[in-house]
Amino acid sequence: MNLRTALRPLAPLALLLLAACAPAPLYKAAPGAISAPPIQVAHAPEQYGNGSVIWGGSVVAVRNFPDHTEMEVLGYPLDSSQRPQPNAQGVGRFIAVFPGYLESFNYPNGRLVTLTGQLNGTRAGSVDQAPYTYPLVTVAQSHLWTSDELRQGHPNISFGVGVGVGIH
């Protein structure tokens, strides 16, 4: 019997233990919530109307206006706990519209955020010199991820079999 065959019965237990470590999702998806990424919504906004979304990504910029704040976000896929996955391919940019004032110092560029809200049309803009269409999301709830939260469910444990060679 080789090692792989011997360890095979332990695989379901290992998966169960890893799943138990993953935090629960932050937000419950509304019935009929849109699962399309921002780039897809930007290309065909009429197909999505004012649907509900749960999106997340990396803060690009925060702009305050007299009665609201707009946060430009580079979207990333979310994991099962709704944490943005910045090592994945970006899924498009969007503008999150918050009522009132947000202190931009608390939302620095590069911080990861997850939010839920309603689509509210699109806006033409640009990324550098390239024209870009941003979906607009009126935010109902948002969460700014801490580094500790991003590590939750990712134990610093590794398993392996190998041979080491040392020089004395």
Core attributes:
4 helices, 168 residues, alpha+beta, OB fold (Dihydrolipoamide Acetyltransferase, E2P), five-stranded mixed β-barrel
Structural class assignment:
alpha+beta
Largest sheet: 5 strands, mixed, barrel
Strand content: 35-45%
Average pLDDT taken over every residue: 84
**Morphology:** globular
CATH arch. level architecture: Beta Barrel
Tell me the number of strands.
Answer: 5
Tell me roughly what share of residues is in helical segments: 10-25%
Low-confidence stretches: 13-20, 155-162
In CATH, what is the homologous superfamily? Nucleic acid-binding proteins
Please tell me the total number of domains.
Answer: 1
Spatial sequence of strands, sheet with the most strands = 1-2-3-5-4
Question: What is the chain-wise order of helices and strands?
Answer: HHHEEEEEH
The end-to-end distance, rounded to whole angstroms, is: 34 Å
- Radius of gyration, CA atoms, in whole angstroms: 20 Å
CATH class descriptor: Mainly Beta
Question: What's the total helix number?
Answer: 4
CATH topology-level name: OB fold (Dihydrolipoamide Acetyltransferase, E2P)
